[in-house]
Amino acid sequence: MGERVVVTIQHPAHVHFFRNAIAELEGRGYDVRVFVREKDVACELLEHYGIAYRRLAGPAGSTRGLLSVQPRYEYEIVRRVRRLEPAVILGIGEPAVAHAGAVADAESVLFTDTEHAAVQNAVSLPLADRVYTPTAFWDEYGPHHRRYPGYHELAYLHPDRFEPDPTVPAAVGSDDGPLVVLRLVSWTAAHDVGRGGVGDLERVIAGLERFGATVRISAEGRLPPALAARRFELPTHRIHDLLARADLFLGESATMAAESALLGTPALYVSGLRAGVLEELERRYRLLRCPREGCGPDESLPPARELPEIREPTLASRRRRPLAERVDATDLVVAVVEDAAGAAGTTPPEPSVPEVVRR
Q: Which stretch of DSSP H or E encloses residue 181?
């Protein structure tokens, strides 16, 4: 058995980011251990992909809940890492990774692409041995911060790793006509619909349907009765098949907006939260648009009706450029682990992947 590597998971998106790297590292003889702080469907995804894991903490449920869950999770990470003595411990913006790495003399490696996670970044990134971000990332974290030309989403949506299933739209009741996937986040009550994101939601949906579109909704919580019938039920691991075959993504999720754009699906991202990756996809590659926060029908419907019309061949042509200019992020993760495992215990570590990493 080769070197031991610990991977930490705190969100479903982390499963997608690491899953191919875990398989490749295990194929190269690494002993990979996965620890999870449960959130949403993270454990469900790990089980679907056949990844063995140990659940160390349950879902937080709220900011107050996180204050009680996080210390327990961090204690368990440190305790287990000290016993396992891995060469490398990986995570996405997770403070426990940096702290456990210092205690266990493991090389702590953090990835992130989220500038607005300011508190989390402040208590984790400066303490890690290595920090890797896309080149589009706005912030700077010192000499241990390296940038790579890529996106988290290309760890699992790169054409070498993903081929969409064309039958999925029929599974959500859209056999023909334009299909719009609408993503809404952070529901707590019916009166919160669209707050901070899409404004006047019911009128936006009515306008899309008058245009002839089938609107299907993915939401983190309860929908008001008038919209509930449009909610789709689909196995979690099939969402990227749906995004790839949709004619438009409209929503408040930055990750799903970026995923749609990189799959060649026009994307309208409506939120007050911004990020360097989204700005690059909008300005450099013109693969998505970011209307202002709270925009209603007058602002969201015109581009929503326009974007599907330019999908082919314009969007396909635009998509080829980032795929040519940006690396497969799984290749990066594997290269970083092999480099970090070789550098564990040395100071300072020097990357052996200069073709994809820039300081």
A: strand 179-184
| Architecture of the 4-159+328-343 domain | 3-Layer(aba) Sandwich (3.40)
Reference 11, options 99, 113, 141; nearest CA is: 113
pLDDT per position as a tens digit, 214-259: 899 998 778 888 888 999 888 989 999 999 989 889 988 999 999 9
Q: In sequence order, what E strands does 237-340 have?
A: 248-251, 267-269, 288-289
Pick the CATH number of 168-325 from 3.40.50.2000, 3.40.1050.10, 3.30.70.120, 3.30.10.20: 3.40.50.2000
Question: Residue 276: what are its φ and ψ, rounded to 5°?
Answer: -60, -40
Label residues 339-356 b or e (16+ Cβ within 10 Å = b).
bbbebbeeeebebebeeb
Q: Is the dihedral of CA 274, 127, 82, 88 positive or negative?
A: positive
Structure tokens at 144: 């241990």
Q: How many C-beta neighbours within 10 Å does residue 76 have? A: 18
Whole-angstrom distance, CA of residue 159 vs CA of residue 323: 8
- Which residues, 6+ apart, have CB-to-CB distance to 332 below 8 Å? 132, 148, 150, 155, 353, 356, 357
pTM of the model: 0.88
Q: What are the strands, taking DSSP E only, across 25-121?
A: 31-37, 54-57, 88-92, 107-111
User: 190-204, pLDDT tens digit by residue?
Assistant: 323 444 567 678 888
Cis peptide bond N-terminal to 313, omega within 30: yes
Cα distance between residue 102 and residue 178, in whole Å: 52
Cα–Cα distance between 201 and 182 in angstroms, integer? 10
